[in-house]
Amino acid sequence: MVKFCSLYSGSSGNSIFIGTEKTKILIDAGLSYKKIVQALTSIGESPENLNAVLITHEHSDHIKGIGVLAKKLDIPIYANEMTWNAIKVQREMIKPCNVRYFTSENGFELGDMWIVPFMIPHDAAEPVGFNFHIGSKKITTATDIGHMTRKILDCFTGSDFLLLESNHDVEMLRVGKYPWFLKQRILGEKGHLSNEMAGKVVSWMAEHGTSRFCLGHLSRENNFPELAYQTVSNALLEKNIIAGRDVLLDVALRDKVGNIVEL
Predict the structure, then answer these.
(1) Sheet of 261-262, strand order
(2) Which of 50, 73, 128, 139 has the CA that lies 20 to 30 A from 204?
(3) Which pTM value belongs to this model?
(4) Parent domain of 57
(5) Diameter of the chain measured on Cα atoms
(6) How many angstroms separate the first and last alpha carbons of the chain?
(7) Strands, E, within 14-127: which ranges?
(8) What is the CATH number of the domain that holds 174?
(9) Is beta strand 212-216 parallel, antiparallel or unpaired with respect to 3-8?
(10) Is the pLDDT reported for residue 67 higher than 90?
(11) How many domains are there within the chain?
């Protein structure tokens, strides 16, 4: 059995737990050590049992707690070379033996998981999403995506579960209080994925066999969970797919632990 839980998801901090009986990892550690420990404990997991942390990219909402976490738990941290080069301050807090490298788009083994990072368009050094192959299951996580490509969709194909960014409502962003340059960044080719685009991706994936989805990395200012859910539900409905009946659709919250998914 695979256990998956979004501990926190959003611009104020991101961390995801994924585990089996043999292997337990975090994807990102963008909050304080204390908050991550509290979140893990709340889902019945001990921080001392973590085997590793994977880093998607160097933005602070994904790495803020990584140095303290690595120091206190003495566990390996995995990232690609470009990301390690971009987090030199955090890296200085990590024992050299715990600094581990992966190569984007090349798979590697971690316990009973086969993990394949894939590159995504975002304004970072070399940001990635992850495919996790665990037994017969495939789990995919992908946030901080500026735009969708055929290559990314190919990485998604065959997933049993997909956590996908649904960052903002385009109209809320356009009329909101963000400065113009920030709006342009978010809407740009290396920004963030909108609810509308998430809906198109989820409906396409549902038509191609994926039945469990979670929407993540929602903006605090330009989105809210009910709107993201409804936008994606409407996109599914256009394909005669009903959320809650034909597929499971959930929303990862910014400031609290999400629902546990077991596969």
Answers:
(1) 99-101, 77-79, 52-54, 24-27, 15-19, 3-8, 261-262
(2) 128
(3) 0.96
(4) 3-262
(5) 53
(6) 6
(7) 15-19, 24-27, 52-54, 77-79, 99-101, 108-110, 113-119
(8) 3.60.15.10
(9) unpaired
(10) yes
(11) 1
